[in-house]
Amino acid sequence: MRSREVHLNNCSVKALKHEAEFYGITPLVRRLTLCEDLGNSSCGSLLFSGLIPPPVLNHLTSHDLAPASSFSNLPLPSRVEISQVIQIESHGNCIAAAYPQYVCLYHRVKESRGWELVFTTPHLDRPPHKIAVKTKTISSGLGDKMLAYSTGTEVKLWTCTPDCRERASFDMKISVDGLFFIGSQLVALSYTGKVAVWQSMTQHWQVQEIAPICSYDIAGSFLLLGCSNGSIYHIDMEKFPLRMKDNDLLITQLFEDPLKEPITSLSVYLTPNV
Q1: Average model confidence (pLDDT) for the chain?
Q2: Which CA distances in Å does 156 have to 8, 90, 101, 121, 134?
Q3: pTM > 0.85
Q4: What is the per-residue pLDDT for 61?
Q5: Are the beta carbons of 210 and 217 closer than 8 angstroms?
Q6: Under a CB-based contact definition with an 8 Å cutoff, are residues 243 and 250 in contact?
Q7: Mean predicted confidence (pLDDT) in 3-12
Q8: Measured between alpha carbons, how far is 46 from 68 in angstroms, rounded to an integer?
């Protein structure tokens, strides 16, 4: 007590706290209570929810993937590498998992049934770089699940209605650094400044190029882009305005830094309507 230090090595925190309470050492009791709480999460800690195993590969057709027999004959390291999860995205009751040679979409309708495989993409020549998933789309004919992924410079979009089919494909001609949904619109962007948006109503791609992108954020139906020239641009995905001169994507300048300093970070919050 003279040194005001307590070493808990090989010492029971519970027993020491009991002694401190008996002798009325309140400051020590408070600190030992904090030590006890370190091992007891007030939020329920991490609980096991479910296991999503990789899909059985023999359900794919022969032109999509090697036959199941050849997969089973692979050495164990090769099988582990093929089944390794490299990225996960989720939305609503759906989870998209990217593997080195394919992307899988799972959903869970009932707790008792666990996660069920909805769709597996054809065999991919290159590992997927970005994936995105969207459930409960409003636009008619798009179904209730949308899955997008990029391999190299190409972006593919699949929809399930409930049968899954390829809805759109687009070659960015450059690496895809961001892929996400805003509402039912799919956005693909490159940090070089190229932005491509798949509009769900027309089901066409709209492309525009601005200054190199340093940061971006989503606020409601707005996409905000912070660029290297000190400007912040925005796109309204709900109104989706197009340029008059060529009917292409309209990206509006929202702010310009007087010193032209790059906008390296963005964080936007829209206040709710009262």
Answers
A1: 82
A2: 57, 17, 15, 10, 14
A3: no
A4: 41
A5: no
A6: yes
A7: 72
A8: 36
